[in-house]
Amino acid sequence: MRLVGLTGGIATGKSTFAEALRELGVPVVDADRLAREAVRSGSPALRRIAREFGPEALGPDGELDRGRMADLVFADAGARARLEAIVHPEVRRLLSEETARLAAAGCDLAVHEVPLLYERGPDRELDCVVVVWAPVEAQRARLAARDGLSPQQVEARLAAQMPVDEKARRADVVVENDGDLESLRAKARSLLRDLRQGLGRRLPNAPPARY
To answer: What pLDDT score was predicted for residue 153?
Structure first.
């Protein structure tokens, strides 16, 4: 089974593009969903988080207080590294399990949607990497509108990730999300066609394919 990595910057439209691929029948394994599963109530990872960060990491319902933890880790790189050291190994385990299940079911192509693909290194395990790109000004506007963030919170979240221009430079494929939703869906159809026809890793020093 071919594995295609899908990533991008925060608020570049990566999840919207992933949904377009799902609508075309491609199985998409969402690392964010697996991260939520990894820290579900009663999980070993959530208990470790409570020990590491104190009971205030949990809400009254015993679930992870995501808003509080986001404010903490986006403002403190050390805290973010401690949290990731707990969550990411469990996400990798769940990702491997889901991949094995899809391969056993006879899937010939699957997409791993991973926000921190280059930051954490699993890109080396994939047949190719697709980056959904948008101008940083669009990222700022979407973050502020979507999540109700202050300018300082927006900048903290952008600073916590590799710049999307750098991700695009490393990518095998760049999808430019600078149009409307139908344009993005059309690009998903074109990319899937080319993946089925063998599109994969670019040659060293070759520019990425662009859509």
So the answer is: 92
Residue 153, burial from CB neighbour count under 10 angstroms (0-12, 13-18, 19+): middle
For residue 125, pLDDT beyond 90: no
**CA distances for 97 relative to 34, 110, 170, angstroms:** 11, 13, 27
d(CA 142, CA 132): 14
Distance CA 120, CA 5 (A): 13
Q: Which segments of the chain does DSSP mark as H helices, in order?
A: 14-23, 31-38, 44-53, 66-75, 77-104, 117-120, 136-147, 151-159, 164-170, 181-196
Beta bridge partners of 2: 109
pLDDT in the model for residue 89: 92
pTM, two decimals, is 0.90
Within 13 Å of residue 88, how many CA atoms lie on the same side as its CB?
14
- For residue 65, the one-letter residue type is D
pLDDT in tens, 86-120: 999 999 999 999 999 999 999 999 999 999 899 88
